[in-house]
Structure formats: structure tokens, C-alpha cells
Request: fold
Amino acid sequence: MTLDLPVLEEPATVELTDVVRTYSGATGGVRALDGVSARFEAGVFTVVAGPSGSGKSTLLRVAALLDKPQEGLVGFNGRDVTRTSARRRRALRRRHIGYMFQQPADNLLDYLDAREHVRLGGRLRAKTGGDVNAGAVDTLQFLGLADRLTHRPVQLSGGEQQRLAFAFAVAGGPQLLVADEPTAALDHAAGARVLEALVALARRGLTVVASSHDPVVIEAADRVVRITHGRVEGV
Ligand SMILES: Nc1ncnc2c1ncn2[C@@H]1O[C@H](COP(=O)(O)OP(=O)(O)OP(=O)(O)O)[C@@H](O)[C@H]1O
Ligand SMILES: [Mg+2]
Reply:
């Protein structure tokens, strides 16, 4: 079975320049990103790799406009969005960015079944034409969830939740897909399907960014950004 994803948007470019993101804590601050510069471009599948605690999730959240750095600049499609209002950033995310949180359940809404999730994803990205539902169900089928269409998250396994989260993130065709360890909860076969979809999206011109520890995912990347202690190696 081949994957027919509805990618309709123009792809995005995200550029981080000298980004610093610190977290304050009782025992002192943590510099989760310590002067990170990175550029994510159309048609490129980038994998952010690094040890646990190195700043991967923080980097992905900043790149997806979910989090703001204390220092540095974040550019989205050539515009500086570092000081853009929370409301405007939320609108940009809804319309243009598909995001997968590291914990599968964090991506999903308790009261929606699998099919309703992908319909919602399509509606949030406000696609016209009637084909969004069909494309989304195809994605669920491709990911092996054809017989889980009417299951709600609580009725799905962790790996099924992660696959649904992927389908939700790509429904309706975002410009940018950012996925935090998208295969971590999956077995080999399901992980291979998600990886195939990530590569296919990039080949169609989408901007794709994923974090991963998995050598198979890293091997499939067009570009690998290695991060250690909040710093990108080799920059
Ligand atoms: N909300 C927070 N408050 C305080 N410190 C935080 C917070 N979130 C992350 N950190 C710290 O920032 C650093 C980077 O965290 P991050 O989650 O980005 O790492 P990661 O590379 O994604 O790790 P993992 O592979 O375990 O998911 C860690 O040292 C972490 O303890
Ligand atoms: Mg993480």
C-alpha cells in the first residue's frame, strides 16, 4: 500500500539564530538551549539527535513556535516571530504546523475517536474541497489503524496512540511537521511505516523535523542535527 497524503500547503522555512532557552528551578537554572542556530528547510527531513536531557524536545518546541526563547531569534517563512503575540503564534501553529509531543497521549483528545481526530486536523488547517476526510482515513489505514477508526484514545495502545498522533499531525497538510520521537512507542513494522511517511512528506516538499535516538531513523535523515548539553555540535 502506498501513502497518499494530502499535502496542499506551501512548505515552511524555520530559522533559529543563537537561541537560548533556560528553565529556572529550585536548584538553579538549566540552559536547555545554549546558543543554538539551525535552519529547517522545505523538502528536507532533519533528525535532531542527542542524549536524554540534551535539549531535543526544547529545540523542537521552539522550532514549532510552541515555546519562546529568552535570547536569540526565531524566523518563520523569513519573518521574525520571536516577539509575535501568543495569539498570533497559536494561529500560525493551528494553520500551518503539525506537531507531535513526545508522550503519545498528550497529542490526543479524550472525547474524539481516531477518525474524528484526523477530521479535526483537516478542519483546523481549513482545507477547502471535500477530500480531506478520505486522505486522512487513508493515512490511518497506511499506519495499520483501519479497524480502529471509531476507537477513542483510552481504547488504544500506546503505539496505536502514537500512530494516531502522527495521522492527526499531518491531516489537512501542514507546511511544517515537527515530531518529537515519533517512533519511540512503536514496534519495528509500525516504526518503519511512520518513517516511510516522514520521508515521503519531505520528498513532496514538506519541511520535516523529528527527534530520535533510533539509528534507523537517523540513517534515513537528509540532515542530522546533533545536540549535546543544549549546544549543536559542529557549529
Ligand atoms: N519545564 C522544565 N522545567 C525545568 N527544566 C526543564 C523543563 N523542561 C526541560 N527541562 C530541562 O531541560 C533540559 C533539556 O530537556 P529536553 O526535554 O529538551 O531534553 P531531551 O533531549 O528532549 O531529553 P529526552 O531524550 O529525555 O526526551 C533537561 O536537562 C531538562 O531537565
Ligand atoms: Mg525529549
In short: The chain has one domain: 14-225. The radius of gyration is 17 Å. Residues 56-57, 102, 180 surround magnesium ion (ligand 2) (CB under 6 Å). The longest strand covers residues 30-40.
